[in-house]
């Protein structure tokens, strides 16, 4: 149904940046030599969180690209997400919806690779120097780096970008996300130093991942600036490989590969950005989007709805080979997707109530009847990754959890939470009986035709969603089960723009949401689950979780000094979150389902951790006319 795999590597853009994150996927890193306090600082081309970067000094290109891919042609794509229109080019402010693909205009000091979980290589920066005390990182800017207007990228521009993103004019999540970076210092015109509040192995990479834009963006002829939070359709001035060619009415936009792009020969860019033009067409709903693809209106479709893949992604163009269907293996952690409860609502305050709502969800029935057996039930916030907790807590996990014992449910210290199952000998009836008992313990009893509390108020809530027909059958099946408990649930669909506003102001009861996966969890978890974010409008903490115990575990996570410490903290966090029943978990799979025109080509070696849309845009290419476009797939 909804997307179950998105980003394999960590994105250091908070949710307020909205769609910016897909091409700036940078991983928390720090050198192995940083562990010794006596080790001298020195500048290097790349850094890795644990061990050494995969690619050595002087490498020519990443393994998962085709360095000889021909350049040219136009790639036409549809909505890369549920966005149906856009009203700005600025992806860094809270209000409005940025144009799809706008992230292609901006680059950062470093970039990650898609075949290792925690590394970063110089992009705008040509060397990186982390201080021995880990309280700062210094980047030297590549003298070739240029903005789209021809200006050199300077340390002043980097400082301007950082200061602007931390200011009230940018989405508020940036100030949280960059909170432990105290300031950016211009050392000289080509050198910038970021200073940290405290040592943190992730901070050098957070600094390296800051999107950089020119201080001239929004500059008017009279020398004054359009306020950053009012930038709408003013042309961004970034240093990326594409610029805006033209757009139409907030529904179509075309980007042109910049012939003067400064970084085309960098090892991290060889074999990428192969299309001369990239066009996005935004369709009003998923049905129109699918039919437009089958009619040949755009070139590639990433399919997230299993029944479409089985029954609707068919037709004469598939039969004659003009359109190709293929499932591509990916190794992204599964992340978490589910029905998220808004803890700001009194209805969801009691963990017994939340557990009862989980018991009413019949995944096995859905997988048989709607999903063609394509999915696996989620049972972790870090499913299908080393950070997934299982069995009894390990000694490392207990070292984190024991000091918090008085604040935690004793069940946290027992076996890992297991999701209810309706396969024999289990059954939905047995699960609903357990749910009824939990609800009764929490003060909810059936009378006068509804489940009611002591004040006679009915148990009633709304499930909010914007994916329409895709999620509706799932929600309705869930609602039928809830009705057997006397719970009055309803399903409401709204468009993307409205649901984003509702999310930003936390105006919902329950919603279907996906937390993008990360291979090495870190600061983004603080934004998602930290108490400070719960009251910050537009934050990632949609559930409104406020837990001192969770906050303490998050601090252990972001300050982990070894891989084992990080895994222990993530697993401890997983146990506490799962035992809290804040989300009714849904499902995941391990492949990207992509349908595409046979004239498109992709590299022989697949990346490991990647989003399908970004992979298509960044590394695919158009078959040259001489090939006749007859081969459905070319490696």
From TrEMBL:
It comes from the Bacteria. One of its GO terms (cellular component) is ATP-binding cassette (ABC) transporter complex. Residues 1-43 form the signal peptide. Gene3D superfamilies: Dipeptide-binding Protein, Domain 3, Periplasmic binding protein-like II. Keywords: Signal. PANTHER family: ABC TRANSPORTER PERIPLASMIC BINDING PROTEIN, PERIPLASMIC BINDING COMPONENT OF ABC TRANSPORTER. This is ABC transporter substrate-binding protein. It comes from Trinickia dinghuensis.
């Amino acid at each position: 149904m909804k997307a179950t795999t998105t980003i394999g590597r960590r994105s250091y853009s908070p949710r307020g940046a909205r769609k910016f994150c897909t091409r700036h996927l940078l991983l928390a890193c720090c050198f192995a030599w940083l562990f010794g306090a006596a080790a001298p600082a020195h500048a290097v081309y790349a850094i890795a969180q644990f061990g050494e970067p995969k690619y050595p000094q002087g490498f020519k290109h990443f393994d998962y690209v085709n360095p000889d891919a021909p350049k040219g042609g136009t790639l036409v794509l549809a909505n890369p997400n549920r966005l149906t229109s856009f009203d700005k080019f600025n992806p860094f402010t809270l209000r409005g919806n940025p144009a799809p693909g706008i992230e292609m205009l901006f680059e950062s000091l470093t970039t990650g690779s898609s075949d290792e979980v925690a590394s970063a290589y110089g992009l705008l920066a040509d060397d990186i120097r982390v201080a021995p005390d880990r309280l700062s990182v210094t980047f030297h800017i590549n003298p070739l780096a240029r903005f789209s207007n021809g200006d050199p990228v300077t340390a002043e521009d980097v400082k301007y970008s950082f200061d602007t993103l931390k200011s009230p004019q940018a989405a508020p999540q940036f100030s949280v996300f960059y909170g432990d970076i105290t300031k950016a210092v211009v050392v000289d015109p080509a050198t910038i130093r970021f200073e940290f509040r405290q040592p943190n192995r992730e901070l050098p990479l957070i600094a390296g991942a800051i999107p950089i834009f020119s201080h001239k963006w929004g500059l008017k002829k009279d020398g004054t600036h359009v306020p950053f939070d009012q930038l709408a359709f003013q042309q961004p001035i970034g240093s990326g490989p594409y610029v805006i060619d033209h757009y139409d009415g907030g529904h179509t936009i075309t980007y042109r590969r910049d012939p003067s792009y400064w970084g085309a020969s960098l090892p991290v860019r060889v074999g990428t950005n192969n299309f001369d033009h990239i066009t996005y067409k935004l369709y009003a709903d998923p049905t129109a989007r699918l039919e437009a693809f089958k009619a040949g209106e755009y070139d590639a479709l990433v399919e997230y709805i299993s029944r479409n893949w089985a029954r609707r992604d068919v037709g004469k163009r598939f039969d004659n080979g003009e359109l190709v269907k293929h499932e591509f293996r990916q190794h992204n952690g599964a992340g978490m997707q589910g029905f998220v409860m808004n803890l700001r609502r009194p209805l969801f305050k009691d963990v017994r109530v939340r557990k009862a709502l989980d018991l009413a969800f019949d995944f096995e029935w859905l997988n048989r009847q709607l999903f063609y057996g394509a999915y696996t039930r989620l049972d972790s916030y870090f499913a299908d990754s080393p950070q997934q907790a299982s069995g009894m807590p390990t000694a490392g996990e207990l070292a984190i959890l024991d000091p918090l014992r008085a604040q935690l449910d004793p069940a946290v210290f027992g076996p890992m939470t297991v999701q209810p199952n309706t396969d024999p000998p289990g059954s939905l009836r047995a699960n609903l009986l357990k749910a009824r008992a939990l609800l009764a313990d929490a003060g909810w009893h059936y009378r006068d035709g509804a489940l009611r509390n002591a004040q006679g108020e009915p148990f009633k809530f709304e499930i909010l969603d914007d994916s329409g027909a895709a999620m509706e059958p799932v929600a309705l099946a869930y609602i039928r089960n809830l009705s057997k408990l006397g719970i009055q649930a309803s399903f409401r669909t709204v468009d993307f723009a409205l649901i984003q506003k509702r999310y930003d102001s936390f105006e919902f009861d329950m919603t279907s949401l996906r937390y993008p996966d990360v291979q090495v969890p870190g600061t983004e978890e603080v934004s998602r689950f930290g108490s400070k974010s719960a009251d910050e409008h537009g934050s990632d903490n949609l559930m409104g979780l406020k837990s001192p115990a969770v906050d303490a575990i998050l601090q252990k996570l972001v300050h982990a000094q070894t891989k084992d410490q990080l895994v222990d903290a993530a697993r401890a966090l997983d146990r506490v979150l799962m035992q809290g029943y804040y989300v009714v978990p849904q499902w995941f799979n391990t492949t990207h389902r992509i349908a595409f025109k046979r004239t498109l080509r992709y590299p022989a070696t697949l990346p490991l951790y990647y989003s399908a849309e970004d992979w298509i845009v960044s590394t695919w290419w158009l078959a040259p006319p001489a090939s006749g476009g007859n081969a459905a797939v070319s490696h």
